[in-house]
Amino acid sequence: MLRRIAANRWVRWLGPLVVLVILIVAFRDQLPFLGDGVRRLRDAEPAGVLLAVTAAFLALFAMAEVMRLLLDAGGTRVSPHRTTGLTIASNAWSTSLPGGPAFSAVFTYQVQRSWGASRLLCGWFLVLSSAVSTMWLVLIGVSGVFFLGARVSVWSLLITLAAMTALSWTVYWASHHPAQLERWIRTLLPALNRARRRPSGEGVESAVSQIHQFDTFHLSRGRFLTVAGWSLLNRLIDAFTLYACVWAVTGTTPGLESAPDQTTVMGVLLAYTTAKLAGSAQVTPGGVGTVDAVIIATLVAVGMTAVDATGVAVVYRLISFALTTIVGWVIYFLSYAGRETGEPALELES
Predict the structure, then answer these.
(1) Closest CA to 56 of 320, 337, 295
(2) If DSSP codes are grouped into helix, strand and coil, which group holds residue 1?
(3) Residues facing 264 on adjacent strands
(4) Transmembrane ranges (predicted)?
(5) What is the DSSP string of 215-281?
(6) What pTM was computed for the model?
(7) What burial class does residue 43 get, using C-beta atoms within 10 Å of its C-beta: 0-12 exposed, 13-18 middle, 19+ buried?
(8) Could you report the per-residue pLDDT of 14-69, keeping only the tens digit for each?
């Protein structure tokens, strides 16, 4: 019964719309920055604003290229415009809901399955792309710590970097050694079943069948480096969006040397990293409130005035959060809402 309701075209189309309306009403007190951002845009440097808008969407395109390359490595060939559309739409899911990344991952999984990607390939993409992206974010943060002496726990950053690097390498290694994984499964899973007092062979063949889907993956070192390069480009262009907003608000481009009431390139990178780390929990849609405060505090700490830092934060969030989210929902309702996107994300029982 519930499955039939969830599969209904009108439910699939109206459901997200109803959720959006509820969220706008619930968090209306957190949204004054939209009007403030529009007012500040009137006084901003037009070239800086245009550059920031362009960079915000180029960053999403770079993320989409990571998806396209990883899916292609698993035998699922998709055009760049389809992966770009999915990336922008899934970004809207991620930024619109508390805990949005989980909803975004489910939506991405459904669409990728409709493209013919296997369950293992979808999971492989999610883990590897997330690990590489986090690795680059931490590296940017570490550079800010060393060059600016920022008060961020360098050990926590280094531990995260080591963990994400190890995870990326593990997923890469697993895709090239399915036979070794099969031997481990045939040895360890029966022992685990016996410890759980279940038949020793339970789930073994199913797990082996899933593992052998790695045989269809062809991620060479060159392609892996290309994927990592696009992921780095996504982070750098996203950070450049904040840099362009600093130029748009202050009329001055941050350089390598500090100046009175101005920040530097490294200051912008540090503000970007701390904002992304603060927004990872996302207890409000898009981290509204939390992320803005972190950007302002960090920019003030690295040399900007409170007035300019507030203006930068508002304009940056208007472009990188509000604008991209609106475009993402337009793409979602035009391309995905009410249509079958693959398997149901959850098995609903009647």
Answers:
(1) 320
(2) coil
(3) 255
(4) 10-27, 47-71, 121-148, 154-174, 313-334
(5) GG----HHHHHHHHHHHHHHHHHHHHHHHHHHHHHHSS--BSS--TT--BHHHHHHHHHHHHHHHTS
(6) 0.75
(7) exposed
(8) 455 545 454 444 444 445 555 555 566 667 788 999 999 999 999 999 999 999 99
Evaluate if residue 10 carries a pLDDT over 50: no
Query: Do 109 and 122 form a contact (C-beta atoms < 8 A)?
Result: yes
Query: What is the arithmetic mean of pLDDT over 228-235?
Result: 93
CB 268 within 8 A of CB 55: no
Q: Kindly list the domain boundaries of the chain, sorted by start residue.
A: 2-18+37-335
161: pLDDT strictly greater than 80: no
Element (H, E) at 157: helix 154-176
Q: Provide the pLDDT for residue 39.
A: 66
- What is the distance between the alpha carbons of residues 304 and 268, in angstroms, rounded to a whole number? 10
- Residues 34 and 43: their CA atoms lie apart, in Å, by 15
Nearest to 119 by CA among 129, 130, 108: 108
- Between CA 162 and CA 184 the distance in angstroms is 25
Q: By C-alpha distance, which of 62, 87, 85 is closest to 239?
A: 62
